[in-house]
């Protein structure tokens, strides 16, 4: 069986630890106390998510074509209204 690879997004939390999001798997979110734990929890969450998809006869999504980038926007009060003008 071929290994699957999924991108994860790690968000540091103010109280410590990281919330982990898996963009290719909607609703697949977990938490880890540190980076190592967050990666371990992500693997566990992804595995559980894929088991559920298989159990329900759904296809397994690929994350091979997704990528992450960033954008920069102004930090003024008018940023939102300017975006919709």
Q: Concise description?
A:
The protein is α+β, with helices and mostly antiparallel strands.
Describe the structure.
The N and C termini lie far apart (51 Å). The protein has a domain at 1-58: Double Stranded RNA Binding Domain (2-Layer Sandwich). It has a three-stranded antiparallel sheet with strand order 1-2-3, with helices on one face. The protein has helices at 35-55, 79-83; strands at residues 9-12, 18-21, 29-32. A hairpin with a 5-residue loop joins strand 1 (9-12) and strand 2 (18-21). The chain is built from two helices and three strands, in the order E-E-E-H-H.
Keywords:
85 residues, alpha+beta, Double Stranded RNA Binding Domain, 3 strands, 14% strand, Antitoxin HicB, TTHA1013/TTHA0281-like
Task: Give the SSE map.
Elements: E1 9-12, E2 18-21, E3 29-32, H1 35-55, H2 79-83
Antiparallel strand pairs: 1-2, 2-3
H/E series: EEEHH
Q: What's the CATH class of the domain at 1-58, please?
A: Alpha Beta
The proportion of residues in beta strands is: 5-15%
**What form results from the Cα inertia axes?**
globular
Mean pLDDT: 89
Radius of gyration: 17 Å
Spatial ordering of strands, largest sheet: 1-2-3
Question: Into which percent range does the helicity of residues fall?
Answer: 25-40%
Assign the structural class, choosing from mainly alpha, mainly beta, alpha/beta, alpha+beta, or little secondary structure: alpha+beta
Q: Uncertain regions: pLDDT < 50 for 5+ in a row? A: none
Return the CATH topology of the domain at 1-58.
Double Stranded RNA Binding Domain
Number of helices: 2
Distance between the termini: 51 Å
State the CATH architecture of the domain at 1-58. 2-Layer Sandwich
Sheet of most strands: 3 strands, antiparallel
Question: What is the strand tally?
Answer: 3
